[in-house]
Amino acid sequence: MSLLNFSILCLMCFVVTDAKPSCSIPKGQFMSLKCEELSSFTEISSVLHLPTRNLQQLTIQSRDTKLTIGAANSSVNMPHLFLLDLSHSTGLELLSEGFSKYPNLTDIDITGCGLEQLLDSHFAIDSMVHLLKAGQNKLSSLSKDLFNKLPRLQNAYFYKNGLSHLELPHMPNLRYLDLRDNKLTDFNLNNCPRLEHLDLNHNQLTEFQITPPAEGFNSPTKEQFPLRLLDLSSNYISVLRENHFELLGNLQILILSGNRITTLKSAHLSGLTSLRYLLLASNYKIELQEHTFEGLEQLVTLDLSYIGLENLDPHLFGYKQVDKQGLYEYLPMVHMSRLSLTGNKLQHLDPRTFEKLPFLTTLLLDHNAFRVLPAGLFAPIRSLRILSVRYNQLTKISRDLLEALSNITTLFIDNNQLSSLPDLNGTLPNLEVLAIGRNPWQCDLFAQTERWLISRKIPYITDDIGSEKPICICTKDIRKLTIWNTQTNLSIEAVNSSLNLSSLLILDLSHVARLELLDGGFSNFPQLMEINISGCGLDQLLNSHFANDSVLNAIDALYNKFTALTKDLFNKFPHLVFAYFAHNALCHLELPHMQVLRELYLGHNKLTDFNFSDCPRLEKFYLNDNQLTQLLNLSGNKIVVLKSAHFAGLTSLRHLHLQLNDKMELRGHTFAALKQLEALDLSHIGLDILGPHLFGYKQVDTEDASGYMPMAHMRILNLNGNKIQHLHTRSFARLPFLEELSLANNALRLPPISLFASMQRLQKLNLSHNQLAEISSDILKTLNNITDLHIDYNQLTFLPNLNGTLPHLQSMTIEGNPWQCACLMEFKDWLRSSQVTSLQDGSDEKPLCVETALDYCDHNVTDDRRNDAMEELKFWQAIG
To answer: What are the DSSP calls for 667-684, one per residue?
Structure first.
């Protein structure tokens, strides 16, 4: 017998035991090893009883065991090891010698290992490492001495550490450097002459230094860095120097979003001759000087959203071409196809603004303050396909403007002040979608527009939440009032007021610099349906400001100074559908039962909690940038207990992700309130038992267990990566329509015979990576609709007679089991005759088998397996 065959046989004998630590050879990779729960490299030989000298690739995951590497005089003979993956071995401890005894290592992955330091002593002198993944650790400092040991390093990942200090020597081979989500305050590119990708987003940089490449760098483009992507977003950069990027002539993507830049001119961008994507969004307030982008001939995408622009120079765009005599002219930017000006304060545009952008295909002008767009504005950009001017104050769109949009396919003009559109006949020949909602359309005039849309079969969308017919108004019966008071304060008082506005429906005060609500406020306007008081400087909003039984259905109160909104206030709004209170200082919000509320915007406040159950019809809800202690997206947190009360009111929830919560206790009927739930991810939450009452929808007004009904919408359940050993025969009894179920990577030994009997629509079942020693024929007979079955990497030596079972099976994974050779031959004959594939996607590896003394397939159940069945029965009897 060859050493290779002996190695495989020894490995298979090992896999069927319960011993830990454990090691296995991945399919077809005989020089590779995958181990779990090792405490040191020395355990490899004791586990496998095989030499390690030929090992080339080693993967270890020790989530529950402290793994120690680098102890003096404890190295293991692995001279050919070049790949070492220790990612997510959360207890990794690197001692003095670290990886230094393995000089041929080229790839090291220590992601998520909880490391607090990485030292030069951990690596061999003149190390061969070219890939180092060390993200998601606790590294606060990386020294020059460390990198001096890594002269061949090409790709380095240090994201999501606590790095506040990074000192690089000359790194002649470094190509890719990921430093995002750290605490770095400075960085100099000069020691990385061949770097192509640099990610520094979410640090604390106040500047980014670019000095000429270090000595010894022979570049075909003299003194130019080969950098292609530079991400500096979400830092504290406020000033750019002239010619700051002149050595980055190869740069194609530059991301400066989320900084504090206040001024930008062409000299700041000098030298970026290859730049294609420039993102400047969310810089609060940037002054763009004339011809800012004149040097960016290759620019394709420009994002200027949310930078506080109030004016746009008509000469902002255009590529500057200089001839040999020094004469110059501004030419069109022929590569530019996308421009975003969303979220600024633009009120006016010069007709010449876009004349140097003839090939623009997407233009976003949302969330500005436009009232009129000038005729001829879009005439130069005949290639325009997508135009969005939603959330402005447009009162009119001229026919001349629409005639220029001959190639437009998607047009968004919703959330403006439009009461009509001009005659559309002969315009917009390529239009496919038109969004028109939330405008005060006049019914008689809108009818003409609607007939045109229907005749062209163009869908007209009212908003993001549906396609109901737009609301129109009859001007003889209703009123709309917009007040512009940008220089003076405005006071509104109902008491002693002689003004009769009893038919007022829409009131826009968003252009009032300072609003003062006196006695009675808006209570004289009982028919008021929409009110906009955004940016009015209000610090309180009281129930006395509104009429009893108000018909208000939309309130826009962004950018005020509210700290509290009471239940008494919202009791005045039984018909409220849309409520916008983002960008205030709310720390207290008390809602009564809001029967028809559909949109609620509370972002950028100071809320610490919120009760969903009071808004049964809520469809759009934003709580971003608050101080919440509980969030709807619960994955990746540290939640230890969940019960049904936590989900009260989420009756329309369809997808719930709870994965990666370490160890979570699910109490009783945890998901009883989630009638509409379709997909549930419970992977990697430390479950070790799944009882009979976890799933089931609680029928209203029932008290006993019989009131729990099947979860009829549930289609996908993921229980992968837990520690489940026991499943009750009724664990899935209330999931009759489940189509996909993953129980992979658990500790199952003997599932109950009728476990899957209730799930007659089950199509995909994953039982891989468990400890199954037997799958009975009774279980297989219940899997009538299974198309994909994964039973790889268990302890199966045989399967029962499959004739007459699994009629719809298309694919099945079986590798990694210690099959009896005679059984495997029978099984493969059945697979061929049934036309069932038995390989993992992208793999051509075949299952292995063990020769026994018998020349036939032994289907006898061992005493150990009978004992397992008895132990399972006793377990459920013991816990009732």
So the answer is: -SSTTTT-TT--EEE-TT
| pLDDT tier for residue 497 given thresholds of 50, 70 and 90 | very low
Q: How far apart are CA 632 and CA 553, in angstroms?
A: 26
| Alpha-carbon separation of residue 592 from 567, 613, 627 (angstroms) | 6, 10, 22
DSSP state of 433: E
Polymer length in residues for the chain:
880
Q: What angle do CA 492, 493, 496 make, to 5 degrees?
A: 145
Q: How far apart are CA 435 and CA 413, in angstroms?
A: 6
Cα 811 to Cα 819: distance, rounded to the nearest angstrom:
18
Q: Which amino acid is at 290?
A: E
Element containing residue 863 per DSSP (H, E): helix 863-879
Q: Return d(Cα 404, Cα 674) in angstroms, integer.
A: 51
Confirm if 558 and 578 have CB atoms less than 8 A apart.
no
Which has more pLDDT, 500 or 762?
A: 762
Q: How far apart are CA 100 and CA 121, in angstroms?
A: 7
What CA–CA distance (Å, rounded) separates 768 from 814?
A: 9
Q: Tens of pLDDT along 809-858? A: 999 998 888 888 888 888 888 888 888 887 665 556 678 887 777 778 88
17 Cβ contact partners less than 8 Å away, ≥ 6 residues apart: none
Report CA dihedral (133, 134, 135, 139) to the nearest 10 degrees: -160
Report yes or no: 770 and 790 within 8 Å, Cβ to Cβ. Answer: no
How far apart (Å, rounded) are the C-alpha atoms in residues 664 and 205?
Answer: 38
457: Cβ–Cβ under 8 A, 6 or more apart, which residues? none
The whole-chain average pLDDT of the chain stands at 84
Cα–Cα distance measured from residue 95 to residue 142, given in angstroms and rounded to the nearest whole number: 17
Tokens at residue 338, please? 């996308």
Alpha carbons 94 and 69: distance in angstroms, whole number: 5
**Among 210, 311, 322, which Cα is nearest to 269's?**
210
Prediction pTM value: 0.56
Instruction: Output b/e per residue, 814-832; b: 16+ Cβ within 10 A.
Output: bbbbbbbebbbebbbeebe
Cα 363 to Cα 121: distance, rounded to the nearest angstrom: 55
Q: For residues 634 and 222, give the distance between their C-alpha atoms in angstroms, rounded to a whole number.
A: 51
Sorted by sequence, the CB contacts under 8 Å of residue 502 that are 6+ apart come out as 524, 525, 526, 527
Is the distance from CB of 58 to CB of 85 less than 8 angstroms?
Answer: yes
Rounded Cα distance between 509 and 189, Å, is: 51
The position carrying tokens 């009129």 is 372
- In degrees and rounded to multiples of 5, residue 126 shows phi and psi of 55, 50
Which pair of structure tokens corresponds to residue 776?
Answer: 């009975």
In the structure encoding, which two tokens stand for residue 461, read together? 């969308």
Task: For residue 84, report the phi and psi dihedrals to the nearest 5 degrees.
Answer: -130, 115
Other CB atoms closer than 10 Å to residue 127's CB: what's the count? 24
Mean pLDDT of 749-764: 87
Q: Is 289 left (phi over 0), alpha (psi -120 to 50) or beta?
A: beta
685 neighbors 660 (Cβ within 8 angstroms)? yes
Give me the half-sphere count of Cα atoms (radius 13 Å) on the Cβ side of residue 501.
20
Q: Which segments within 752-806 are labelled E, that is strand?
A: 764-766, 788-790
Helices (H), 349-439: 399-403
Average pLDDT score over residue span 230-242: 93
User: What residues are paired with 287 via a beta bridge?
Assistant: 263
Residue 851: exposure state from Cβ atoms within 10 A (0-12, 13-18, ≥19)? exposed
CA atoms within 13 A on the CB side of 199: 15
Neighbours of 324 (CB within 10 A): 5
Report residue 209 CA to chain centroid gap: 31
What DSSP assignment string belongs to 643-712?
-GGGGTT-TT--EEE----SS-EE-SSTTTT-TT--EEE-TTS---EE-TTSS-EE-TT--SGGGEEP-T
